[in-house]
Amino acid sequence: MSHSIRLVARLALAALGVGLSFHDAGAQTALAVPPQATGQQPSFSPLTTRWTFPEPSAVNAGTVTIITAPAGGAKSVFAADMARVLDEQDKLRVLPVLGKGPVQNVIDLLYLRSIDMGLVATDVPEFYKIQYGTDITDRLRYIMKLYNDEIHIIAPKEIKTVFDLEGKRIEAPKDVGLYSAKAIFSRLKINVTFDTTYLNDDTGALQQVIDGKADAWIVGTAKVMPIARNLKNEDRRLHLVSIPYDKRLQDLYLPSEFTSDEYPNLIPPGEKVDTVAAGILLTSFNWPEKTDRYQKVQKFVDALFSKIGEFSKPPRHPKWKEASITAVVPGWQRFKAAQDWLDHWHAEQTALAAQQAKADDQTSLGKFKEFMAQQGRANLSQEELVKLYAQFQEWNRRSKN
Q: What is the pLDDT of residues 335-350, one digit of tens each?
């Protein structure tokens, strides 16, 4: 290190000792700015003005439908939350539709004329490959990841892990658990038989396990699941079965767990049970660009992404904390309007970061110049100051590494 760099380093570090921080000057200034208010403020009115009916064409042009799952679960609540936050008179209306669940939602997205978007699990495409022999991801696109669905297996205690289900009789309702069960058993090479009597009845399927007529009940749903939490299980004969995070599952599922606080009726106090989770995606048909259907979904995406921060606040569903508009989902392509929005947002963030960095550098350089003057080195030219400051920044960067 040259004499000039050592000198400037000593002088700069001395400045740090008297309370000047070149690196953090911009950040410290920013902290002094009062935080801006977020969300809408209450607006009270006597409501004495008569309302008028909207234009029918505007109502239809601004309405989008999202097909979910039966009422009461996270999927239907998420769509209701989107309607509450995003609806804007004469511009956008989100119309939730109660559907069967992720498997049937694919059929409805492909063939029902009135459905614009739907909630689909990340492991459903694998189910379609296994059960239908077709790839659905070439016709569907994902908009964002909403949350994780944990895989629940309830069985007698002698079944310790998913591997103990070899040769067993399984209850897995079609739109609640069959798709995950087929994907997991296929990957882990576990041979089971499925009861087809209760494919459309999740509680009836669970009753078969309670009555000893089946060996395990498998569903994928957001924890805490009321049906599982409210199972009496007074004799403690049943429990939640562990699904280890086997490497054969890792490209499709995330690791998760259940605790005794979440399911005190199925897990001994203080214990945990490993499981895996599938992502729940907001998806759309791959509409051609510039079509009316594409533009309706594009309008919805712009509103959703612009207000995404509102969904993590009370009283929205707590699972919104798992949502991500930037998550990259293996095996899926993003809806073009969503990707365009993210590309524009990233470009804006990059430009803002560059502007902030430049402003920080100017602030820091100004402080550096002022400090050098206090040390009797005011006779340095602007070019020399900039050069010495650049050398100090490089020295400081290397010293941190």
A: 999 999 999 988 887 8
Domain that holds residue 381: 3-26+348-400
Does 186 map to a domain?
A: yes
Domain finish residue from 282, 307, 334: 334
Summarised one tens digit per residue, pLDDT across range 105-137 is: 999 999 999 999 999 999 999 999 999 999 999
What are the residue ranges of helices labelled H in 278-381? 292-306, 336-374
> Residue 129 is part of a domain; what is its CATH number?
3.40.190.10
Q: Copy the structure tokens of residue 351.
A: 């430009």
Would residue 128 count as lying in a domain?
Answer: yes
Measured in degrees and rounded to the nearest 5, phi and psi for residue 35 equal: -65, 140
> Per the domain annotation, does 271 fall within a domain?
yes
- Whether residue 46 is contained in a domain is answered as no
| Residues 288 and 251 both lie in one domain | yes
Q: Model pTM?
A: 0.78
20 by Cβ neighbours in 10 Å (0-12 / 13-18 / 19+) ranks as middle
Q: Within 13 Å and on the Cβ side, how many CA atoms surround 193?
A: 8
Please classify residue 154 by burial: count the beta carbons closer than 10 Å to its beta carbon, then call 0-12 exposed, 13-18 middle and 19+ buried: buried
Same domain, yes or no: 282 and 144: yes
Q: How many CA atoms lie within 13 A of 291 on its CB side?
A: 10
Spatial distance between the Cα atoms of 299 and 64, rounded to a whole number of angstroms: 9
> Contact, 123 vs 180, CB < 8 A?
yes
CA-wise closest residue to 199 among 176, 165, 222, 180: 176
